[in-house]
Amino acid sequence: MFAGELKKQKALFAVADTAGLIVAAMTAIKLHDPDGAMENQLQSADPIMIVAGALLAIFVWVAAFRTFDLYRLRNGGMKEARGIVKACTVASALYLLAGFALHIGMSRIAFGAFYLLSVPSVLFMRFAQRNMIRRFYSSPGIAIPVVIVGFNSIAQYLCDRMEEELTQYDTVGFLDSDSIGRSYHGHPVFGDPEQLDALRRSYPGLEVAIALPDASLDEQGRVVGLCEKLRLRWWMVPWVYRSAATGLRLDTVGIIPVVGPRGSNLEGLNYLIKRVFDVTCAWMILVFALPVIALAALAILIFEGGPIFFRQERIGVQGHPFRMFKLRTMRVAAADGVHREYVQKWISNGHNGAAHSHGADQKLFKLPDDPRITSLGKILRRFSIDELPQLFNVVGGDMSLIGPRPALPYELELYQDWHRRRLEGMPGITGLWQVSGRNHLSFDDMVRLDVQYLEEWSLVTDVRILLQTIPVLIRGEGM
Questions:
Q1: Quick one: 361 and 417 in the same domain?
Q2: For 257-307, how does the pLDDT look when each residue is reduced to its tens digit (9 = 90+)?
Q3: Would you place residue 101 in the very low, low, confident or very high pLDDT band (cuts 50, 70, 90)?
Q4: Whether the Cβ atoms of residue 249 and residue 451 lie closer than 8 Å to each other
Q5: Residue 151 belongs to a domain with what CATH number?
Q6: Residue 446: its pLDDT value, please?
Q7: Cα–Cα distance between 375 and 329 in angstroms, integer?
Q8: Rounded to an integer, what is the distance from CA 18 to the centroid of its chain?
Q9: Domain identity same for 280 and 385
Q10: Domain range spanning residue 322?
Q11: How far apart are CA 237 and CA 235, in angstroms?
């Protein structure tokens, strides 16, 4: 239904992006080489190398588009445009680096023209693709009228998603005996479910979305029975929807549908892929980070004295404790009472503790104006240099590069049951909360981002978060 159509749309938009890039490349060559000299040179070159180079370029660009979530953004707007600019910029930089490393000769002027043309070309192709899909879905015989049984927040959410997404569904209205005469975004409430027979005659091919998760099983069964009697295709929101704070996962065992709470996607081969990615990247980063760690350690020794490193017990995957390493940024033997109070306010009240302290500009879980931090420590924290020794935790298997923030032992006493979902994956040096662009997250919001990351994990997501972390560090915004 929805999932299958969305997969096909992703493929179509990848084709549109590829077509836009080809048009941009051909236009750049024509503009830079009106006499056809470069074109003749390409024609005389090894066709295998030309095809390989073209496939590499397309792969790099499409991978960049996927990294910036552009195959989820299919409805246009400024968010999509900004994503395309970022993706084209990153892909261009990667392609230039690859060309330099492989000693591939290319015209810088032609490549610059290609880069400048790639954004408007892709935007135009996506605009055309969107209009084509909408036109296709709205054509007679393709569009599917759907009526929603129920007039509650979930029913209205379904209506919004079907209106906003590129789908073949056309909402005709709602059925609810308690809300007759009302409407939502121009869609009327016709009456009780018995009106299905009349609607079936008015809307050939009608489908029924049953959004009554709070209704009794008898009431839900009655609506399903009515649909079956009228031979109407139906689908429903299950009653267990309310029981899963972070959503449900649907599956089948043979022909039996099964429903359960969504869990971490970091299982089986996915765990192995993430672990190989973590270790490989951690060692690569350590090559550049070790001199920085050594200089910072020397500065701590000269200006603050020993010890250089700070070891703290944190809670890892499935609640197992481990020792996390950081460069020392606090005074020796500093008490943690102030931070305990801060964390208690943050978790218990559901808001950032900074709201109870010095106000608005404080980062997630960071204690504002912490008197325990040394002058040198403030500099190290600003650029997250103090976090670099955690790369050894990553190599050792206690942490990941990307994951939920490592919890403190005294936090667990304040957790609600659903908060513990964030312990289903290895804690990370950075995470989705770090690059979310929201500096004033409540604790519940942070947990939702952690759970979302675990449930929707992919290697592309990790690469995207890692790339988005770099500008955060360069700006000195801390981790």
A1: yes
A2: 777 777 788 888 889 999 999 999 999 999 989 999 999 999 999 888 878
A3: low
A4: no
A5: 3.40.50.720
A6: 85
A7: 8
A8: 23
A9: yes
A10: 269-474
A11: 7
